[in-house]
Amino acid sequence: MSHVHPATRIGHVHLKVSDLERAIAFYSGVLGFEVQQYYAGGQAAFLSAGGYHHHIGLNTWKSLGGTPPPKGHTGLFHTAFLYPDRAALADALRRVRAAGIPVEGAADHGVSEAVYLSDPDRNGVELYSDKPEAEWPRDADGRLAMVNDPLDLASLLAEAPPRD
């Protein structure tokens, strides 16, 4: 069996939401992604970081006014947003806190540090930054040995860059 090309990445996520403007208020207003385009007469929007065509697609095509799936059902566990460094992750956490959005979890996985929350449609959201690969924990055979240790959010917030 051959493996996927090592440069392959997940390019974007497209979410069904119940209220497009409410979802944009979260992904743009809180997390800071920029709206690149409204689409389909205002039933969808594409958002990104840095002017890319889109990292996040949001639509109400089959979900306008809908409710989140009940617990115990299959579906997306979370969408993970990789920040370039710990300071950028700290800034994202500061935005989340300032918006009054509850943090549902935080972990040091050895390879990364992550903060977990939900968007307005209760889609799981992970905000994380990777640690340098040289610091990733490995077992005696050199295989990755990720952990799930607590993350000190106060320490993380202390690294947020000054506000403009």
CATH class term of the largest domain? Alpha Beta
SSE string:
EHEEEEHEEEEH
**What fold name stands as the CATH topology of the largest domain?**
2,3-Dihydroxybiphenyl 1,2-Dioxygenase, domain 1
Beta strand count: 9
Strand content: 25-35%
Fraction of helical residues? 10-25%
General shape: globular
How many alpha or pi helices? Answer: 3
Cα gyration radius (Å): 17 Å
Main sheet strand line-up: 5-8-7-6-9
Tally of domains: 2
Give the overall pLDDT as a whole number: 95
Q: In terms of per-residue confidence, which ranges show pLDDT below 50 for 5 or more consecutive residues?
A: none
Described by strand count, sense and barrel closure, the largest sheet is:
5 strands, mixed
Distance between the termini: 51 Å
Brief descriptors of the model:
single chain; 164 residues; alpha+beta; 2,3-Dihydroxybiphenyl 1,2-Dioxygenase, domain 1; five-stranded mixed β-sheet; four-stranded mixed β-sheet; 9 strands; 18% helix; globular
